[in-house]
Amino acid sequence: MTDAAPASWPTDGPPSGTSRAVTLTDLLRVPMHRLRLVAAVALVGLLAALSYVLLVPPAMSASAVVAVRPVVTDAFTPSGAGADRAVNMNVESGIATGTEVVQRLAESAGGDPRDIRDALEVEVPTGGQILRFTYQARDAHRAVESANLAAEAYLSVRRTMYEQQRAEMLRSYDESITKVVAQQTALQKRANTAKDTAAGDALVAELAGINNQLTQLNAARTEIAAVDVNPGWVTQTAEKALVTSAGHRPLYLVAGLLGGALVGIVLAYLWESTDRRVRSVADGREASGLPLLGTVRRPAFRGSPRAVDADIRYVAMAVAERVRQPARVALLSAREDATALTAGLAVALAVDGREVFVADDSGRIERLRASVLADRGRLPIDPSRPLVPKPRPAGSTPAAGATTDSAPARRPSPHPPGARPSTDPDATLTLPRVSSARPENNRVVAPDEVAVGVGSVRFGTWRQGADHGLVLFNAPPAESDERGVAVARQGSAVVVVERDRTRQSDLRRLVERLRAAGVTPLGFVLTRNGRA
After folding, report:
1. Which own/partner contact pairs does 508-513 have at CB distance under 8 Å and 24+ positions apart?
2. Which sign, positive or negative, has the C-alpha torsion 365, 371, 377, 379?
3. Is 474 within 8 Å of 369 (Cβ atoms)?
């Protein structure tokens, strides 16, 4: 069978200036192909969260509520419209978590002030004059005691601050009253010793003003002394019955799993940026600059590989379109094994009548033979196996020497020829003829030859296939062996790219080596993991 002449074929893929939109599938492709890494890191995060839940005891939380009141001179006076703004709750919250409150807690309950500050939390509801003291501890008793102590310490600190302010104001009023009383005494002496009537009247009027001032100071002091400096009350004390577990511990497991998955996805992208693999046809074209000969898909179900076989036959048609016998085609890969694809191509090329010689110098002949036999058994139509025997032409006579139906049947001899020993010493011994090949489709098949359709596939080394018209060389990985590139210099090459396994850097290096050696590859074939 004569192959078609090679037609013109573009050496490059799509124009480099065209840009492709990045879709959601492209973003998910990297984590899906690095699924083992993502799952491993997510499992580590889940185990870390589970260890924390099991090993670290849960923190108990207790709460006490304090109602804050403003300091007023008359507690029975109705409050105005701005009563909720009479106390600055931001300031009160700062005092509640201040150093004095924390220090008193440390002195009463014991512990590091820094740990107490971290365990104490003060909440201020919006628009209210309430402080909610929440304390977290390892046991309920410590949490209840510390929450109540924090509330009492805040009230004590605030009361002390108000009392100090009142004492300072009273002291200031006392000093002013003392000065006014001294002035009053001096004026009283001068008025008693005055001889002039006019001077006496002036002193009496001045004395009246001082007396009025003294009366006002005493009244103001009385109001300050009567101020209630109580900063508030504890409206709800912390109790053991109200203690709750701090946080939702089952959520830690979900957080650990999701956090680990997120870290795994980030690591997957980082790993992909340093170890780029060929994920699609576009990646193969971009990395190699070669035309696509075909894609060989892995079947969805292991028991139905026909889709894979059909893809291989399409690749075989693309290869046959570009070569003319005698042809030497080397199937090259960077680090992968192209044995399955070589056997499939041999079967697809031989089924149409070609005599294909599969060469291998790496000790994979038996694997190639087994793959060829398996692929031959899945051919949709095998012309080498006629389903119906040829009919006998009408009027034909039986072959010469054949017995008729009326002739009596001859019983077979119990002693086949050569079984009975001859007594004649000069008798000739006749050996049965042993055929070294079986006829099939009216042709003789050699012992090292596999009949495929109307063609055949033979196996051997590269040197043994020198006289054959179509030779497929199952080249070893090019990263560790240069024989594939050397064979490709004598013919042509087909680059085998395995999706999700072939590195783009290895593919570029292989194509550069081929071009540096003067080889123009026919194109590349994109396969899937496992079988070609």
Report:
1. 508/287, 508/288, 509/334, 509/479, 510/332, 510/333, 510/334, 510/478, 510/479, 511/287, 511/288, 511/289, 511/290, 513/478, 513/485
2. negative
3. no
Please name the residues in contact with 487: beta carbons below 8 A apart, sequence gap of 6 or more. 328, 330, 462, 473, 475
The tens-digit pLDDT sequence of the chain (532 residues) is: 444 444 444 444 444 445 566 677 777 878 887 888 899 999 999 999 888 888 877 778 888 999 888 877 666 665 555 555 577 888 888 888 888 888 888 888 777 888 888 888 898 887 778 899 988 888 888 888 888 999 999 999 989 888 888 889 899 989 989 998 888 888 888 877 776 777 777 888 888 888 888 889 888 888 888 888 888 889 888 888 777 776 677 888 899 999 999 999 999 888 888 878 888 888 888 888 899 998 888 766 554 444 477 888 888 888 888 888 788 899 999 988 888 888 888 888 888 888 889 998 888 888 888 888 888 887 765 555 444 444 445 544 444 444 444 444 444 444 444 445 555 555 554 444 443 444 444 454 455 688 887 788 889 888 887 788 888 998 899 888 888 898 888 888 999 998 888 888 889 999 999 999 988 899 999 987 544 4
Q: For the whole model, what pTM was predicted? A: 0.54
The number of residues making up the chain comes to 532
SS (H, E, C) 256-296: HHHHHHHHHHHHHHHHHHHCCECCCHHHHHHHHCCCEEEEC
Alpha helices in 34-139 (DSSP H): 35-55, 89-96, 99-109, 113-119
Q: Which residue has the tokens 């009563």?
A: 83
Phi and psi at 279, nearest 5°, equal -105, -20
Are 340 and 532 in contact by the 8 Å Cβ rule? The answer is: yes
Structure tokens at 325: 């016998």
Residue 302 tokens, joined: 């292991």
HSE-CB of 128 using CA atoms within 13 angstroms = 10
61 three-class SS: strand
